[in-house]
Write a structure and sequence with these properties.
19 helices; 2% strand; mainly alpha; two-stranded antiparallel ribbon; ABC transporter involved in vitamin B12 uptake, BtuC
Length: 444
């Protein structure tokens, strides 16, 4: 017997068609539209900051538990080093000594910037010392013995170094030779080229009025120069932070609170203007420091704000994943070694300026180790995928502060090497422990 309701049928009736009454689809359509709307992505790290001081403390604890230490250890270490040497010597924080530190860090610091790019790939470049020496030799020979203008000689020398880096990158990226072996061969080969270029004399003094001499010996003595650079740096940071926050809000993302931007800018302003005041108490703003900081800032922008920089991090994180994402892995690898060689060349010119000459010893000794140590001590991982150009600045500040403090106390060079080696080992151990902690917390 069929049901009296024409829109339904009994469960027992085989073949009966069950019809549902027409329903209002407005609510259903609204729910579907709501589910298909873009979901606002929220960065939990920024969300917790909106809770005020408590949120920042919780975020700091989370980072410590997960091994995300950032630059905190090296900054604390630098403060400790300066405090100890000031207490021991009584003159470490004098303006003249701090100015000398800014001069000494330029050469190896620039080389360390190039090392940062290579380490981000999880590789190493052992040739930077010999590339630096060869560059200085080529520049000196061209300008002194062949009458080439100092500026053009420097350009030719740096271009030659870039070719050297391209050779390293080609054998590594295209042929498959390990970077360690390729750059070790480069260390030996370019050292030989350096000695051949210099000839039997082995030393060529820089022209007294040439551009190379001024690289490490020129100061902007007007006090407005140091304060102007400090002001420009602070304003650039503030403008960049506000613009980034605006873009995030327009994209529907949680942005860094304005109050936090103000606090960060104020801290940077205190550091920048204190540094400017200190430099003005001595000889003024060194050109070497301006160039070094400029390269660090440009390198940081390239790594954090460009597609090329993101490709470097991607290749350093996983070569296979980067290749599947369509990244030209060989080109990224080759270009990174070209950048490393260019930075080594520029650093070599600053070292030659400081020494007053290009000789067979330039780029030897502990130059290579200090450049690598600076990048690692500053926080760039030896395992690839994590680091920034500011690591070069922080790391070389630590190394040169130790050297300068021990020099003030008249400590033997052998002790300096041992202490620097211990600091490097501590940095690598910290990096390894940090990575292990991050993996254990699911963030590695």
């Amino acid at each position: 017997m069929s049901s009296s309701n024409p829109t339904s049928a009994s469960k027992g009736d085989e073949g009966a068609v069950i019809e549902a009454p027409a329903a209002d689809t407005t609510a259903t359509d609204a729910a579907a539209l709501e589910s298909s709307a873009p979901v606002r992505t929220v960065d939990p790290r920024l969300l917790v900051r909106e809770e005020g001081l408590k949120g920042y403390l919780e975020e700091f604890k989370r980072k410590m538990r997960s091994g995300d230490l950032g630059s905190i250890p090296v900054i604390l270490g630098l403060i400790l080093i300066w405090g100890i040497f000031q207490g021991v010597t009584g003159s470490f924080l004098n303006p003249d000594n701090l100015t000398n530190i800014t001069l000494y860090i330029a050469g190896p610091g620039l080389m360390a910037v190039g090392i940062v790019f290579v380490l981000l790939l999880g590789e190493i470049d052992l040739s930077v010392g010999s590339v630096a020496g060869t560059t200085a030799a080529i520049s000196a020979v061209l300008s002194v013995q062949h009458g080439v203008s100092a500026g053009l000689a420097m350009v030719i020398a740096i271009a030659t170094a870039i070719v050297m880096g391209a050779v390293h990158g080609f054998f590594f990226a295209k042929i498959g030779v390990p970077a360690f072996v390729v750059t070790l061969a480069g260390l030996l080969s370019w050292s030989g080229l350096q000695q051949w270029v210099l000839g039997t004399t082995g030393t060529i003094n820089n022209p007294p009025d040439g551009l190379i001499v001024h690289l490490d010996n020129y100061f902007f003595s007007d006090i407005a120069a140091a304060y102007g650079v400090a002001l420009v740096g602070v304003l650039l940071y503030l403008g960049g932070a506000l613009l980034d926050a605006k873009r995030r809000r327009e994209a529907g993302l949680t942005a860094r609170p304005t109050a936090e931007i103000a606090v960060r800018t104020a801290v940077l302003a205190v550091i920048a203007f204190a540094a400017a005041y200190t430099l003005n108490q001595d000889r003024g703003l060194p050109l070497a420091l301006v160039v070094f900081l400029g390269i660090v800032v440009i390198g940081d922008w390239v790594l954090r704000r460009t597609a090329y920089g993101r490709q470097i991090f991607a290749v350093g994180g996983s070569v296979e994943a980067a290749r599947r994402a369509g990244i030209n892995v060989p080109w990224v690898r080759i270009s990174v070694f070209m950048i490393s060689a260019a930075m080594a060349a520029l650093g070599g010119l600053f070292i030659a300026s400081q020494a007053g000459a290009a000789d067979k010893a330039l780029g030897g000794g502990n130059v290579l180790m200090n450049a690598i140590a600076a990048a690692v001590i500053g926080g760039t991982s030896l395992f690839g995928g994590r680091g920034k150009t500011w690591s070069a600045l922080l790391g070389i500040l630590v190394i040169q502060s130790i050297i300068q403090g021990l020099n003030l106390e008249g400590i033997d060079t052998s002790i300096q090497y041992m202490i620097t080696g211990a600091v490097l080992l501590a940095a690598v151990v910290l990096d390894s422990v940090s990575r292990r902690t991050q993996k254990a917390s699911g963030r590695g």
